[in-house]
Amino acid sequence: METIHKRLEQVRRNIGQVIFGQEQTVEQSLISILAGGHVLLIGVPGLAKTKLVDCLGRVLGLDTRRVQCTPDLMPADIIGSEVLEEGESGRRTFRFIPGPVFCQLLMADEINRASPRTQSALLQAMQEHRVSVAGQTHQLPQPFHVLATQNPLEQEGTYPLPEAQLDRFLLQIDVDYPALAAERQMLIVTTGSADQEPQAVMNGEELQKAQRIVRRIPVGDKVLDAILKMVRAGRSGEGELTDVTKHLAWGPGPRAGQALMLATRARALLQGRLSPSIDDVVALAHPVLRHRIALTYSARAEGVTLAAVIDKLVALLG
Questions:
Q1: Residues forming beta bridges with residue 97, ordered by sequence position
Q2: What is the CATH class of 218-318?
Q3: Which fold would CATH assign to domain 1-216?
Q4: Which of 54, 204, 207, 301 lies in the 20 to 30 Å Cα band around 266?
């Protein structure tokens, strides 16, 4: 475990040489990958979301592909399709041509610009790590992760992700502007004669080993009870916070608890600890829950925010 922690520290340092002022975003992205999950990155243009995904792929030594989502993108453009070929004997057969989803790290850029039909093509891949084409099932490479980006501005011509697909993302990471010192360093480094290129630290096999270690990290009863208390408090009729649940159209499901269990373990490993603590639950509550609960229309009209609701759930933990 100590060896894996040192490698992960080197991964963070290498990414930090290219991505400036986004330490929390980098940490949460690594947590999600270590936990075997997918990531939804939301932020305005110019915050290095695309560069972060490319950098993660290089440093972790993963086969990385990119799909630029547009309204005319078809499911076959992502998962692949079958073509009819004629051999020398004149016999015709179908041959499957894999799409860009057959990789270890798939970047779906501006995923909300793809049509619902195309978005749904990713559902099976994200959940089952396989795709079905013409009645045949094709396994995806391992490990497999989807890192999708979304622009909160310019909502014209976009298709909001359905709740079923949002729930497949382990974390929703809201990418913010960098601090002054980090932005100053970024301006100096990125406008010079040569950009810093990230160097590979791990490979897919080593990453899978780290993911297996994450699942073996023990979780104490206090942490488990904290996760259950917070998740169930967000459901109508189950929690003690009726002033919170009345504002929610729906609350977090069981997958939210599973995400917190895995993410807290991954955070402990990333920080070199033998087991997660309640502080890990508090730190990861927002990225785990913000896309798994929804406000009612009346709550939004009253100015209630998701962040405020999650803060009240976190406050239950003391």
A1: 81
A2: mainly alpha
A3: Rossmann fold (3.40.50)
A4: 54
